[in-house]
Design a protein that fits this description.
This protein has 280 residues and is an alpha+beta fold. It is built from seven helices and eleven strands. It is elongated and about 60 Å long. The two termini are 28 Å apart. The chain binds a DNA duplex (16 and 16 nucleotides) through helix 5.
Length: 280
DNA sequence: CGGTACTCCTGAAGGC
DNA sequence: TGCCTTCAGGAGTACC
């Protein structure tokens, strides 16, 4: 579920709802997700206060004292914030909870348990193995057409697979890679090194555009997320090709009666959706 | 080193 | 209805 826009929306929600309030209770309901919860996490967090909510790639980073609590949502992770008087019956996939002094409750809910939670000293965050080799933020100034062009010169893998590699650029997942390639008119099976300078520039701009649009869509959902059972991570974002096999693709000249609409293939074990008329 | 296949886990959806 | 198979938005590891 969560790619960069989803995690960014979660970050914004955490910033608004749990910063600068003392943690009054912590519950760890099972020993591990993808990896074990940190030793003594309950004791470490008790009575602490988060002072900054950051994000790096698909990781949300909550600073307290001289440490950072890092949360990755995996495929099925969700953050739920309950208001003081919200009710929620016990759920077997609520693995990690924190209560705050104003009565709010943070819940990490993750049925597939591909998510992870770890701690690191804040001043050593960038050296942590999750981040040490991570590529630039796609919305930052270090990610531009020239960077993408340079980095793909020696890549023999497909452009689709290359963009999913977090070492090339951080935070992109299957959905937004499919959408960005469609928007740019680049076929997902093209070798990464075959991108022209112009295509790299265009692809880079479209990645930024689509991520910002998705964050904005998440943001508008966020405004009333409390009504929706307090869950963050749902997005009303209109995909052009993702999960649209057989549908007509928007703003395309192709004739669906001839092409059969959006096509689906598998690359590196992941589904890719595209239009072979628009994407060359 | 680069690239691919496999793996963790549960739940939803579709076929029969 | 129910049983079975397939697939899912991630990413670390093993192996060529």
């Amino acid at each position: 579920m969560p790619e960069l826009p989803e995690v960014e929306t979660v970050r914004i929600g955490l910033e608004k709802d749990i910063l600068n309030r003392k943690i009054t209770r912590v519950a760890i309901n099972r020993p591990d997700l993808r990896i074990p919860f940190p030793d003594n996490l309950t004791e470490i967090l008790q009575d602490q206060t988060f002072t900054l909510a950051g994000r790096r790639g698909k990781y949300a980073c909550l600073q307290f004292a001289d440490q950072t609590l890092v949360i990755h949502l995996g495929m099925s992770g969700r953050v739920i914030i309950l208001a003081k008087d919200d009710d929620r019956s016990a759920n077997k996939h609520d693995h990690f909870e924190m209560d705050f002094e104003d009565g709010k409750r943070f819940i990490l809910h993750d049925p597939r348990r591909f998510g992870m939670v770890f701690l690191t000293r804040t001043d050593a965050l960038d050296q942590h193995k999750a981040f040490a080799a991570m590529g630039p933020e796609p919305l930052g100034n270090n990610f531009d057409g020239l960077y993408l062009y340079d980095k793909t010169r020696a890549k023999k893998t497909s452009i689709k697979t290359a963009l999913l590699d977090q070492r090339l650029v951080a935070g992109l997942g299957n959905i937004y890679v499919c959408e960005a390639l469609f928007m740019t008119g680049v076929h997902p099976e093209r070798k990464a090194y075959s991108l022209s300078k112009t295509e790299a520039e265009s692809l880079c701009q479209n990645i930024k555009k689509i991520l910002l649009a998705a964050i904005n869509a998440g943001g508008s959902t966020l405004k009333d997320y409390r009504k929706a059972n307090g869950e963050m991570g749902y997005f009303q974002f209109n995909f052009s090709v993702y999960d649209k096999e057989g549908s007509p693709c928007p703003d395309c000249t192709c004739d669906i009666n001839k092409t059969g609409g959006v096509e689906k293939i598998v690359q590196s074990g992941r589904s890719t959706y595209y239009c072979s008329t628009k994407q060359k």
